[in-house]
Specification:
By secondary structure, this protein is mostly beta strands. The protein is about 10% helix and about 35% strand. The chain contains 3 helices and 20 strands. The protein has helices at about 85-100, 105-120, 165-170, and strands spanning about 55-60, 60-65, 75, 80, 120-125, 125-130, 130-140, 145-150, 160-165, 175-180, 190-195, 200-205, 210-220, 225-230, 235-240, 255-260, 270-275, 280-285, 295-300, 305-310. Strands 5, 6, 7, 8 and 9 form a 5-stranded antiparallel beta sheet that branches. A hairpin with a 4-residue loop joins strand 12 (about 200-205) and strand 13. The N and C termini lie far apart (about 65 Å).
Length: about 325
């Protein structure tokens, strides 16, 4: 059993919460009555989980949160150490599941059928850039899909080679390829990896011909699109503000659209959009193939709407733009 990610919790109530002494969970004893054919067997004795007497008032309604301590995946005074009580409870749940699953009839037969069906593998939709074709492919035996490039060989036929294999990078299987975007010419590849299931993508740029990174890493790029400009010298992307620049607890918000020049320090990237808008906004970016138009879309949280802005990248900067004929100059 894996614990859900979340902020460490010290099992103390928030402001306005009420508490009472810990109340142990009354677990029913395992039923020992014999079960007939097709009926459930004896009920397992689940690991006990102590209850906290925590109640908060949210929007005028009392909400009990007795198991808040299970959110505490690390020790409050040492974030590098797992909480022993939570770890012991999770391991007991794992043991219970394995004991029960071992008694399920037909489990191996079903598992074998699922393996056979998944063994067909998958191939993603190809993306053509220049003379190269990029796509992801996953064989049935592979833990993760790999990114493949196909390009004309010396004999005129396409040859394939793997650009990114997450299992080569991390044999534990905990590193994933979250996103990728080749440049318009197909000679560069922006790609994002995250490790340990964090989904905290780190952005890098690879020279496709050699497979060698030529830019990055750029952190805080979770869920970031990448929009290349013609020539591959610059791209637009989305990045969160540095943690020290935002209020505590808002580190996962405050996204901005930036312009990055290949080979330069990302901390010097030009911020082009997002300031003053809702801190929860997610942004999409794209650049027209001729490099003239930058399009930015914004969606706030899960609201059923979005907004779109467009900018002419060939126009003079606003502070130097000439006013239209007949229009007054703006100081």
């Amino acid at each position: 059993m894996s614990l859900p990610p979340g902020p460490p919790c010290d099992a103390q109530p928030d402001a306005g919460a009420t508490t009472s002494p810990d109340v142990p969970v009354a677990e029913p004893a395992a039923r020992s009555a014999a079960a007939g054919p097709g009926q459930p067997g004896p009920r397992a004795a689940y690991p006990q989980a102590r209850r906290l007497g925590i109640t908060e008032t949210l929007h005028g309604h009392p909400v009990a949160d007795p198991y808040r301590w299970l959110e505490r995946t690390q020790l409050p005074d040492d974030p590098d150490l797992p909480d022993p009580e939570v770890t012991a409870w999770a391991r007991a749940q794992d043991r219970l599941f394995e004991e029960q699953a071992a008694t399920w009839p037909g489990r191996e037969r079903v598992a074998g059928r699922i393996r056979a069906l998944l063994g067909a593998g998958t191939v993603g939709v190809p993306v053509w850039r220049g003379q190269r074709r990029f796509f992801v492919r996953r064989e049935g035996s592979q833990e993760h899909a790999v990114l493949v490039v196909a390009e004309p060989g010396a004999d005129g036929t396409d040859s394939e080679r793997v650009l990114i294999d997450p299992m080569d990078l991390d044999p534990s299987g905990l590193t994933t390829l979250d996103s990728w975007q080749p440049s318009l010419e197909g000679d560069l590849l922006a790609y994002q990896l995250s490790a340990g299931g964090t989904e905290e993508s780190v952005l890098r740029v690879m020279l496709v011909a050699t497979g060698v990174d030529v830019d990055g890493p750029i952190d805080r790029a979770r869920y970031s699109p990448v929009a290349w400009t013609p020539g591959g010298e610059t791209f637009y992307y989305v990045r969160r503000l540095a943690p020290e620049l935002v209020p505590d607890g808002e580190q996962q918000y405050h996204r901005r659209v930036y312009r990055h020049v290949l080979g330069t320090d990302p901390e010097l990237d030009q911020e082009v959009f997002g300031a003053g808008l809702d801190l929860r906004s997610y942004y999409g970016v794209s650049v027209s193939r001729d490099g003239r138009w930058l399009t930015v879309s914004a969606a706030t949280g899960t609201a059923p709407r979005n907004d779109v802005w467009i900018a002419d990248l060939t126009a003079p900067a606003p502070e130097t733009a000439e006013p239209p004929d007949g229009a007054p100059a703006v100081p």
